[in-house]
């Protein structure tokens, strides 16, 4: 949840959630769904000109349906993300009550005192966008989540010229994704991941289950193509996966030739003709993969010699839950393949490594670098990269800090009371 302020107005960019976290640093009390505390802006919601959602990942969109009644501002986003949002609003009884303005690629819209332009970028789902936020006193390039991927699996490849053009327009500040700022080199392409998964599936004999993040539509399309290439039927287990594929269908991002069988039919087909994709890569106890591990799934039973592929990184804090799954599969002689130990690349991050960060700073040429979206060590590493390629000034701060960009750049520590609130306890 980012707030950009100018001339007595605010623009909110993204409104996400996180899972299985405390609301107080260091606390042992863990809550299932947690969001940023919106009190600062909710107490002056008449100053909130609009809410912009950059893409449909939960850490950018997941809190909006719950927090919108406290904000009451129009929402601006692209069609795919708007469809995801509408489904979330339906779950809380807000369908038709939230004004959603759909925008197009490269469109520029005036929102209060801000002019916002949507800049296409590559990530792991349809319609990811960075933002150019302009005011009479300065311009901010907000990267959102991104990577440099020429073959992203969904949408167009990365277009370098767009960012070189930004570099010619005197960007005051760049707020930039820091998630992989500690990782050397260049991130893997989704196409490389597709090839690695294809080779891995080809080497198996019986049923194969791939588990990945439900929102990674590029990966889901890749798995569909792998099913076609290996003469297997594609089955999808988990409500969030089915929902995301449904959104992709409605918005024209799901290839019409990728067919999905009825889940109940999988049990009647030969083992070597099944490729399933399932929720639960982080060991969630109610997810489809956990029920497969327990042998309690109503539609599919795994047997000795079947294979489960984890096409996702294990998020720190989830190791115990994932290890429990691995033990259950091992006890039943079901092979498991993790991305960390796989012979082939079977997972690709959606965030930029060091080389990509350097390139972006060199193209955009901001006067000020403001690393965001990461822990303190990631933010510091991002700032050092910006400095190494000639960015004159950088600010590294914490939640609640105010970055004043004009007329005199400065960082005001703890200017706003920030924190977390519980969306769902369990």
UniProtKB/TrEMBL annotation:
It comes from the Bacteria. The keyword RNA-binding applies. Keywords: Exonuclease, Hydrolase, Metal-binding, Nuclease, RNA-binding, Zinc. Residues 1-197 form the Metallo-beta-lactamase domain. SUPFAM superfamilies: Metallo-hydrolase/oxidoreductase. Pfam families: Lactamase_B_2, RMMBL, RNase_J_b_CASP. It is an enzyme of class 3 (hydrolase). Its EC number is 3.1.-.-. One of its GO terms (molecular function) is hydrolase activity. Signal peptide: none annotated. PANTHER family: RIBONUCLEASE J. This is Ribonuclease J. It comes from Alteromonas arenosi. The lineage of its organism: Bacteria, Pseudomonadati, Pseudomonadota, Gammaproteobacteria, Alteromonadales.
